[in-house]
Amino acid sequence: MNLFDLTGKTAVIIGGNSTLGGTMAEAIAAQGAQVAIVGRNMDKCEEVCARISELGGQAKSFYADATKKADLQAVLTEVLAWTGQVDILMNCPGMNSATPFFDIEMEEWDSIMDVNLKGVVLACQIFAKQMIDQGQGGSIINISSVSSGPPLSRVFTYSASKAAVNNVTQFLAREFAPHRIRVNAIIPGFFPAEQNRKILSPERIQSIIGHTPMGRFGEAKELQGAAVFLASEQASSFVTGTFLRIDGGFGAMTI
Known about the structure:
- By secondary structure, the chain is an alpha/beta fold.
- The chain has one domain (10-249): Rossmann fold, CATH 3.40.50.720.
- It has 9 helices and 7 strands.
- The protein has a 7-stranded parallel sheet with strand order 3-2-1-4-5-6-7, sandwiched between helices.
- Helix 1 packs parallel to helix 2 (42-54), helix 1 (19-30) packs across helix 8 (224-231) and helix 4 (106-134) runs parallel beside helix 5 (156-176).
- The longest helix is centred in the middle third of the chain and has 29 residues, at 106-134.
- The protein starts with 9 loop residues before the first strand and ends in a 9-residue tail after the last strand.
């Protein structure tokens, strides 16, 4: 019995060209799924596909701006032409900023909300509708953040967007349950993702480490097990509306 076998499944990874998204895509492909790597930077998409191919998996890159419905609809059409179905959707594009609250311009607010929240809603509209039409269930995995609640200091807009992703996750878990589509979120702690490196000062790093019981940052590969678990209907068939923390104990700390 292999609870994590994804043979015959098609996974669409929005933001699959990112550090964390690409690593989780590798794990899903390693379990037998055909993986669509979706992003704006096609060079990075191809790099992820090449790594998956080297490991014996199947992957193909697709261009899309996650904030544009027409782009995502085009990806769905292309994926269906490739494999004929969509079984797994992972939403992991992300945008962050450490702009102080009183200095935030609405242009920046809109950009972050568009990528982190609007993109999730659009992808769920398009790909979940396909899952419903197929009538075979499915899994949606949203990538949230430890800043979703309680919020972290200095990342106001990002925290607000990820709190909204949590709300969307639970709303859609209820909405899609009759169709056997499970909707869950992974809540990563601090990982060496590109968006984190840009805002981490030495003082900030020390504060994070001091608040993390395991005393270190996570490694991207430490998200792989959670991704495969939530993707697999055999392993997580009764799991929906859940937030799975992968944070080294960060969320368990107070003072």
